[in-house]
Design a protein that fits this description.
Number of strands of chain B: 3
Number of domains of chain B: 1
Radius of gyration of chain B: 16 Å
Strand content of chain B: 25-35%
Distance between the termini of chain C: 54 Å
Structural class of chain B: alpha+beta
Largest interface: A-C, 32 and 30 residues
Chains: A alpha/beta, B alpha+beta, C alpha+beta
CATH class of chain B: Alpha Beta
Number of strands of chain C: 28
Helix content of chain C: 25-40%
Oligomer: heterotrimer
Helix content of chain B: 25-40%
CATH topology of chain B: Mth169, Chain: A
CATH superfamily of chain B: Phosphoribosylformylglycinamidine synthase subunit PurS
Strand order of the largest sheet of chain B: 2-1-3
Strand order of the largest sheet of chain C: 8-10-7-11-9-12-13
Radius of gyration of chain C: 26 Å
Shape of chain B: elongated
Chain lengths: 229, 81, 729
């Protein structure tokens, strides 16, 4: 598996994603520069977390216009697997590759803590085989409050495009387990075809025993299996 | 009565957001763009019907909460209706 | 030049505005043999300020130990460095941003973080951890919630955005900080040991480059402001607030590290307080060279700026780089890739003079030595503060259980979750012990198995009661924190926050604290490698408690062996260390409504050293599963906190008196172990007093001989609920 991690100015988690794929999983991971036009033949593209362009204007709004995003859109249109994590999710919505938008957290504060996620919905390259699992993964964001109009939301729910929801450790989904006020307690969604996924939590931050939690590896391992090792 | 409070950074205070947007506009091919300054607009609905009193109230709100006098300036205006 | 500027002779008010006494100004004229030009007056003003010249503190700072086999770079550079092992240097420093944070808490704290990060990456080190030590006034003071919210948001706003995890810190509340909060930011980075960059302007003819944000009128005279006490009305007279731009700093960080990966730079220095002036003068001074700057070439953000403003501006996110000749094009290429301004603004000269030109005209021409070496140094008069009153006994609480819950709900003791959850403490995937999970934070040393432990600490009340003992205890406490997670203390950075040095009592406190810190550093083999002094922390003549903040760095051979402070179930709890508790300066004392009073617990440095050695040996033998030192709130609070974190009860015998339960001493650690016999035997062999306290298990904390049998849930509610209540009401 070859994984391209896009570096935008202000991306912070690009190295972390490269580390998990390269050092923890022993596969090929490399960074591509936002201003370039070459994804270098990946099996998977990750848009990492961070504060691209300082989150100025709107989170992800400026990066969505980066030259590389035309290539990411092409790759996605041809069925390529794309994962946006945190700021990467925000960029995907701003670029129109995923519906909806991510607003300021309901509590108005930046939140960094472990949350639990229930995996559900259609099988995506990152969640295949995980449906029904509850995984502990940290969030770290100021704008993770998912919003979409009623029609879009109904379509997402109807078509199984909601793939991750905030929940309690026992899998129960309710407002108390939702850290940011997200509609439908949504933590992650997929495109209609399932190949593009955006999620606010950071699976790359919990993929090594030293960090005390390896639940995040499940997403990367699912990608390994789906995309052919 | 509806009031409008516009809050801007004081001249001389670095507008980091404006600076980033400036650069992005240039990259998108909008040439000839000078400095971009970002501000906020608050639309406030008021029960007050006397324009002078409404303006005074808006000014007090701006001073007390909406603007940070350390780094921001503000203007208040009334809108008909 | 467009603008009219004052000409000599300068009146008394102008000189006062520049923080220069008549005697100091006379010296300026004597050194120059003439009156300074207006920009030269500005240059002297900042270079001779307390902030840059350490004029009141320098004679005392010399007494701090600064050497040791582990020291790679001692004080005097942008940051200090120690040997991290496996070819890595660990670079760190702590710095204050107190006054700006009081005036504009968000931006003041944010730019404090930005400044300390630049100090670290200027050395060629990638920053991997941030901590902060905050002191606020009384929780019920009307300004406190606003200041806490703003400072925390500012620290988070900057650190989160630039992608350096904020892994730990320390927050305390006390009335002495009502009018002068403390915001001390600590940053740590790592660099290959053989590629540390220094702030030297060497090599005659080498070009000097300006890199980063454009210069505006931000914070002009911030450095002199930081050196003057507040008075009512100073909020109106403030200079333009500096605004932090973490996005630009992220670009600057990556650009600098790209440049530093190649052999391009001779020297580099951050433009911090006093901006272009101090960065260029300090670089020239260290190299014994001169510099000429063409100020008209400096990238400017605003129209009509004049040399005086360019020299004194404290615009953020800027660096001065001395480039090797012939490498200019590569420097420009690497920096431009990140979209930053880069331009040559001067050259290194052999003249030993700091020269600035404006459109070809010389506007500053001053010997570098006059600005740096000839800066005034004062051995200011000292007089001992009268000894504090002492309480020998306090009434026993009517209910020990209630007293414990009340103590857990004191904002200084309570959980700081509200704070650290607003900081990204996990980015860079190196955080092994997270904030709130252990006595010290632990991050991994990249590309190795090693770990770095970090802690910041200082109890200003102890320092107020006895600055020598308080200073020493701050070092001991931070060393114990680091040892609790299993790391050997290595070195400290200090941030010395005091009131006006012009008051003999304050100067005495400062000198005493230095001596206390020095004694403890020697006893623990943890020298001082970097630091910062912040004086004049007082408003209308009321000063803060002396607060010499200590940032301790320790190392673990294997990061995966680090332990936290959450009790596991079914373990013995053992107390190590025989320090005798006292009520002096304790939370329990203040909770009784008592004024601050002594006596302080005894300071026993050899005993502290023996305790640390024992802890580390026991940790190496696998006998420590969790450890927590007893500090504010005493032994009962320490045991309760471990229960809350481990979500487990305990049945312990701590003694039944208020003194035994809630009295404070620095030099006691509670350890959870699976083999109490072996641990007690080791303690006995090491000559460290130790005793078994009890066992963990169940869902209640029971204190033998008292009425306390509290559900862990109740402990948690008290401990977790207090901080949000302070800020959010």
């Amino acid at each position: 598996m070859r994984v391209a991690v896009v570096s935008f100015p202000g991306s912070n988690c690009d190295d972390d994603c490269v580390r998990v794929v390269g050092e923890v999983l022993g596969r090929t991971a490399y960074k591509v520069w936002h201003a370039d036009h070459d994804l270098q033949g990946p099996d998977l593209v990750i848009l990492p977390g961070g504060f691209s362009y300082g989150d100025y204007l709107r989170c992800g709004a400026i990066s969505a216009h980066a030259p590389i995003m035309a290539d990411v859109a092409d790759f996605a249109r041809r069925g390529g697997a794309v994962l946006g994590i945190c700021n990467g999710f925000q960029i995907l919505t701003e670029a129109g590759l995923l519906p909806g938008a991510l607003h300021r957290n309901a509590g108005l504060h930046f939140i960094c803590r472990d949350v639990h996620l229930r995996v559900e919905g259609l099988a995506t390259p990152f969640t295949a085989g995980l449906a029904g699992r509850v995984l502990k993964v940290p969030v770290a964001h100021h704008d993770g409050n998912y919003h979409a109009d009623a029609d879009t939301l109904a379509r997402l729910e109807g078509d199984g495009q909601v793939v991750l929801r905030y929940c309690h450790p026992d899998g129960v989904v309710d407002a108390a387990a939702n850290p940011n006020g997200s509609l439908g307690h949504i933590a992650g969604i997929a495109s209609a075809a399932g190949n593009v996924v955006g999620m606010m939590p950071h699976p790359e931050r919990c993929a090594e025993p030293l960090l005390g939690n390896t639940d995040g590896l499940a997403f990367f391992q699912a990608a390994l299996q789906t995309l052919g090792g | 009565m509806k009031g409008k409070v516009t809050v801007r950074l004081k001249a001389g205070v670095l507008d980091v957001e404006g600076k980033a947007i400036e650069g992005a506009l240039a990259k998108l091919g909008f040439n000839g763009v000078g400095a971009v300054r970002v501000g906020k607009v608050f639309e406030v609905e008021l029960a007050e019907t006397d324009p002078a009193a409404a303006k005074a109230a808006l000014t007090a709100m701006a001073k007390g909460l909406l603007a940070n006098p350390v780094m921001e300036t503000f203007e208040v205006a009334l809108e008909p209706g | 030049m467009g603008q009219r500027q004052p000409q000599p002779p300068y009146d008394a008010e102008i000189l006062r505005g520049h923080g220069l006494t008549p005697a100091e100004y006379a010296r300026v004229e004597a050194l120059l043999g003439r009156a300074p030009t207006w920009p030269e007056l500005g240059v002297f003003s900042v270079m001779w300020s307390e902030h840059c010249a350490y004029k009141s503190s320098r004679v005392h700072l010399k007494r701090l130990p600064t050497t040791g086999p582990q020291v790679v770079q001692g004080p005097g550079e942008n940051a200090g460095a120690i040997d991290g092992g496996d070819g890595w240097a660990v670079v760190f420093k702590m710095e204050s941003h107190n006054h700006p944070s009081f005036i504009e808490p968000y931006q003041g704290a944010a730019t404090g973080v930005g400044g300390i990060l630049r100090d670290v990456f200027t050395m060629g080190a990638r920053p991997i951890a941030l901590l902060n030590a905050l002191r606020f006034g009384r929780p019920e003071h009307p300004k406190t919630p606003h200041l806490v919210s703003g400072v925390v948001a500012g620290i988070g706003g900057y650190g989160n955005c630039i992608g350096v995890p904020t892994v730990g810190g320390d927050v305390m509340f006390d009335a002495s900080y009502d009018g002068n909060i403390l915001v001390n930011a600590f940053a740590l980075g790592v660099a290959p040991k053989d590629r540390i960059f220094l702030g030297v302007a060497e090599g005659v003819g080498n070009p000097v480059f300006y890199v980063g944000s454009k210069t505006g009128r931000d914070g002009i005279h911030g450095a002199t402001m930081a050196s003057e006490e507040f008075s009512e009305g100073s909020e109106e007279k403030r200079p333009t607030v500096q605004v932090g731009d973490p996005f630009t700093e992220k670009l600057l960080l990556e650009a600098c590290l790209d440049v530093m990966a190649e052999d391009i730079l001779v020297g580099v220095q951050d433009m911090g307080a006093a901006g272009l002036t101090s960065s260029s003068c300090e670089m020239a001074s260290r190299a014994g060279s001169g510099l000429v700057l063409h100020l008209d070439r400096v990238p400017m953000r605003e129209q009509g700026m004049v040399p005086y403003e360019l020299l004194l501006s404290e615009s953020q996110e800027r660096m001065l780089m001395v480039c090797a000749r012939g490498k200019e094009a590569r420097l420009i290429e690497l920096v431009s890739r990140w979209g930053l301004d880069v331009c040559q603004v001067g050259e290194v000269t052999e003249t030993g003079r700091f020269v600035c030109t404006w459109d070809g005209e010389t506007v500053v021409d001053v010997p570098v030595a006059a600005l740096v070496d000839e800066a005034p140094v004062y051995d200011r008069p000292q007089s001992p503060a009268p000894p504090a009153a002492c309480v020998e006994a306090l009434p026993e609480p009517s209910s020990v259980g209630k007293a414990l819950l009340d103590l857990l709900g004191r904002p200084t003791i309570a959980s700081k979750r509200w704070v650290y959850e607003q900081y990204d403490h996990m980015v860079r995937t190196g955080t092994v012990v997270r904030p709130g999970a252990g006595d010290a934070a632990v991050v991994r040393l990249p590309q190795t198995r090693r770990g770095i432990a970090l802690s910041v600490d200082c109890n200003g009340r102890y320092c107020k009661l006895d600055p020598f003992v308080g200073g020493a205890l701050a070092v001991v406490e931070s060393a114990l924190n680091v040892a609790c997670v299993g790391a050997r203390p290595q070195a400290i950075t200090d941030c010395l926050n005091f009131a006006s040095p012009e008051r003999p009592e304050v100067m005495w406190q400062f000198a005493q604290a230095i001596d206390g810190i020095a004694a403890a550093c020697r006893a623990l083999d943890a020298p001082v490698v970097s630091g910062n002094v912040s004086l004049y922390n007082e408003t209308n003549g009321v000063g803060i408690h002396p607060t010499p903040m200590i940032g301790m760095v320790g190392l673990l051979e294997d990061a995966s062996t680090a332990v936290g402070s959450a009790w596991p179930a079914g373990r013995s709890l053992v107390l190590l260390g025989g320090a005798m508790p006292a009520f002096g300066g304790s939370e329990y004392l203040l909770m009784q409504g008592h004024a601050l009073a002594g006596p302080l617990p005894d300071l026993d440095l050899p005993a502290a050293r023996a305790l640390i050695d024992l802890l580390l040996a026991a940790h190496g033998a696998g006998l420590v599963e969790a450890a927590h030192d007893a500090s504010e709130g005493g032994l009962a609070v320490a045991v309760a906190e471990g229960c809350i974190q481990g979500d487990v009860g305990a049945r312990v015998d701590l003694g039944a008196t208020a003194l035994a339960l809630f009295g404070e001493a620095i030099g006691r650690v509670v350890v959870a172990t699976g083999d109490a016999e072996a641990l007690l035997a080791r303690a006995q062999a090491a000559g460290v007093p130790a005793r078994r306290l009890g066992f963990t298990g169940g869902d209640r904390l029971t204190l033998a001989g008292t009425d306390a049998a509290l559900p862990v849930q109740a402990l948690r509610a008290a401990w977790e609920g207090a901080f949000p209540a302070v800020v959010e009401g």
